[in-house]
Design goal:
With 122 residues, this protein is α+β, with helices and mostly antiparallel strands. Helix content is 39%, strand content 34%. It has one domain (3-120).
């Protein structure tokens, strides 16, 4: 990969990471680890591992440069796509990720009960 493309991939991954890190408690609730700048389906992306209530495994957030929107890929353990969400605006990225990684369609009360039960079962 040429130097300019590598820099673009790294810069894009940093940008995505800054969006996800804007609410650190949300990101921490996913068990977010191992962030890496990658090229995914020829798109600059950030890949990371999560251990949420809805998804456990790798997540790839890629910038679709043509549309200037994000694509999210939830991956199975074998690397195959479990779920693909396309056309996500930057200001919706964190909430879409949280819904698909952690909260699902639970109400705030249901989610809090699930968190309490998980904490007390340790």
């Amino acid at each position: 990969m040429e130097t300019e493309r590598i820099q673009e991939v790294n810069d894009t991954a940093k940008y995505i990471n800054s969006i996800i890190g804007s609410q650190m408690a949300v990101r921490m609730s996913w068990g977010f680890i191992d962030p890496a700048a990658i090229l995914y389906n020829d798109m600059p992306a950030l890949q990371f591992h999560v251990a949420g209530f809805q998804h456990q495994g790798n997540v790839v957030v890629a910038l679709n440069e043509g549309a200037d929107l994000f694509d999210i890929f939830l991956l199975k353990r074998n690397g195959k796509i479990k779920k693909h969400i396309d056309g996500v605006y930057f200001d919706e990225l964190l909430s879409v990720l949280d819904r698909n990684i952690e909260t699902g369609n639970m109400s705030a009360d249901q989610y809090q009960e699930k968190v309490n039960n998980a904490v007390y079962s340790i």
